[in-house]
Design a protein that fits this description.
Blueprint: H1 10-18, H2 21-24, E1 28-32, H3 33-39, H4 42-51, E2 55-59, E3 62-66
Antiparallel strand pairs: 1-3, 2-3
């Protein structure tokens, strides 16, 4: 039989995400959208992001949360001038 991870409560999962060393030190965390939707719901998760004054971006099935108050800008390649 496969060892399954016992289900976490939504409150515990959110607490673990935002109390991680990376999050509390102003770093970047990423979570799969499918996990967010299944465990806590996207609206609740994004409410938590906003309440903390953080920003998030979505790409494919990943939500990346910037756990600080610095502005977020999309980087673009610059043309090389010869």
């Amino acid at each position: 039989m496969t060892d399954l991870i016992p289900p976490q409560s939504p409150d515990h999962w959110l607490s673990a995400a935002f109390s991680s060393t990376t999050a509390t030190s102003g770093g970047v965390i990423k979570r799969r959208l499918s996990d967010i939707d299944r465990i806590v719901g996207r609206d609740r998760f994004l409410d938590e992001v906003r309440e903390r004054g953080f920003q998030a971006i979505e790409n494919a099935d990943t939500l990346i949360v910037f756990c600080n108050h610095a502005p977020v800008r999309l980087a673009s390649a610059r043309a090389v001038h010869a």
